[in-house]
Amino acid sequence: MSKRILNIVTCAYRATLEEQDDPILWLTHSMRAAKAPVDVLLLSNAVCYLVRDQDASGLTLGGWSQSHPPRLVDDAAALADGGASVFYNAADARTRGIDPADVVDAAIPIETEALPELLSRYDLILNW
Predict the structure, then answer these.
(1) CA distance 9 to 128
(2) Domain locations in the chain?
(3) Which H or E element spans position 94?
(4) How far lies 2's CA from each of 37, 79, 82, 87, 126, in Å?
(5) For residue range 18-55, what is the model confidence (pLDDT) as tens digits?
(6) Could you tell me the pTM of the whole model?
(7) Does CATH place domain 5-127 in 2.170.130.30?
(8) CA 52, CA 17: separation in Å to the nearest integer?
């Protein structure tokens, strides 16, 4: 039997300029493609990945312009569409002023006090 895996993402926007995606969301997509039973929990600033209508186009640093901006909300939604559970800490979202109506539909809010029960469902937890 496969071990249930939870990837926890707390560090937001890591490598998103260089790679146009979050490395852990990409890794989770890859693991799921290999049939691993892996889900995602977004904490801290990573809850911002779930906000609809983000637009990083037009980003310019010096003479360089980002031609392929990250679409992290699409990456998270694609995980859910592929069968992964995409959880986020509701308190972290509230702290950042994120309205639940602005969050992608497939995301599952988890209150802080419910985190221990959620974590107990997994055999392997990776905190990134």
Answers:
(1) 5
(2) 5-127
(3) helix 90-95
(4) 7, 19, 18, 21, 16
(5) 666 788 999 999 999 999 999 999 999 999 999 998 87
(6) 0.89
(7) no
(8) 19
